[in-house]
Amino acid sequence: MNHLTDETLNKYIDNEMDVHELNIVNEHIKTCEICLQKLKAQKVVDTNLRGISQFKLPEGFTENLMQQIAVIRPAGIHFKPQKSYLLRFIFLFLGLAILTFFILSLYEVSQSSSSLSADKLFWYPEFLKKISVEVNSYSALFKSQTISLIGGIFTFILLISAYFIYDSHRDFKNRLNNLR
Amino acid sequence: MKNLSDIEIIESVKRGNQADFSLLVDRYKERAYSLLRRMLKNDFDAQEVLQDCFLKAYRSLDSFRQDAKFSTWFYRIVYNSALTFLSSKRRKEENEMTSLEDVLELKSYDTQIYAESENAAQFINKMVEKLPEKYSAIINMFYMDDMSLDDISKITGLSIVNIKVILHRSRNALRELILKHKYYEELL
Ligand SMILES: [Zn+2]
């Protein structure tokens, strides 16, 4: 009978043989010293491959790595979508615009008793003079009952600003906690 | 804490408990290091690439799909990083390195390793290091990690047939050396 092939030896080691094939191998190695040695050698290889050792890392590997990870943005926490920042910017811009308008109007209201002329504002830069004069024509809008309305708007803006300040503070605190 | 599953640890990290990632690191570092060390044949390179692999895994934890095993997912990062590292290293040393990549040539190391080894276990352990990286990677995963051929296939992208060919070739080459040195007499 033929000697055992590489394929047969590997099948034997991997327990991929049926009883019939196994019998043929066992019969053969009874009479063939060469194949018996081959089979033994194959077993020695398999047994010792199962025992190959793990390599040991130097001390402090995990600590070192975690220090590097600490400065990375925490996984799973995404940047909020860009529109959130855009929204904040729009609110801030609107708030500032309304606030400027409000202050200017207050000035107009306080001036409304005395007649206002452009000469009285000689210490204003040229462009502000223009604005003041223009706003002056709307000054009738800002009599006593409109002031309460403006006050309301102002409070509203303050509340929105407070919310955004609180929100960004909470966000910052979250990040800080994650750095631990 | 120690008994958490990989998925539970990942969930915790995603909730913001960044420090819990160290549990995963401690769980896989030695196994992954052994794979890298056997592929790269060098302590320093293996440590550096291992660190990169964990950082890569941390950054892309979001893209880890829960229906897969973390070990398989992470091993794929490790295996591919090792191949990338080797190919860029070889490009730098192009003149020196010819394409030995898939040539199974153990005979040139035989005399030296036989002299250094006291028994078959030591001899085989050292010889595995001399296998080409894909061979040593597959031997490492199949024998040391006790991984299934299916998982090894997912990690390496090689077909199961090819993995078996590599496994058999490695064993056959080692068997010839075991026969030569009559190590089989250790066996009763
Ligand atoms: Zn025979």
Characterise this structure.
The complex is a heterodimer of chains A (180) and B (188). Chain A has 180 residues and is mainly alpha-helical. Chain A folds into three domains: 6-50, no CATH class; 84-139; 144-180. Helix content of chain A is 69%, strand content 0%. Chain A has helices at residues 6-13, 19-31, 33-50, 61-70, 82-111, 126-136, 144-178. Chain A starts with 5 loop residues before the first helix and ends with a helix. In chain A, 11% of the residues are buried. With 188 residues, chain B is mostly helical. Chain B contains nine helices and no strands. The interface between A and B is large, with 43 and 49 residues. The complex binds zinc ion (ZN).
Name the quaternary structure.
Answer: heterodimer
Give the biggest beta sheet of chain A: none
Task: Please name the CATH topology of the largest domain in chain B.
Answer: Rna Polymerase Sigma Factor, Chain: A
Give the domain tally of chain A: 3
Give start-end ranges of low-pLDDT stretches of chain A. 78-82
- The rounded distance between the terminal residues' Cα atoms of chain B is 45 Å
What's the pLDDT, averaged over the residues of chain B? 90
The portion of residues forming beta strands of chain B comes to under 5%
Sheet with the most strands of chain B?
Answer: none
Distance between the termini of chain A: 72 Å
β-sheet strand percentage of chain A: under 5%
Cα shape of chain B: elongated
Q: Which chains have the largest interface?
A: A-B, 43 and 49 residues
The total strand number of chain B stands at 0
CATH structural class of the largest domain in chain B: Mainly Alpha
Alpha plus pi helix count of chain A: 7
Annotated CATH homologous superfamily of the largest domain in chain B = RNA polymerase sigma factor, region 2, helix turn helix motif
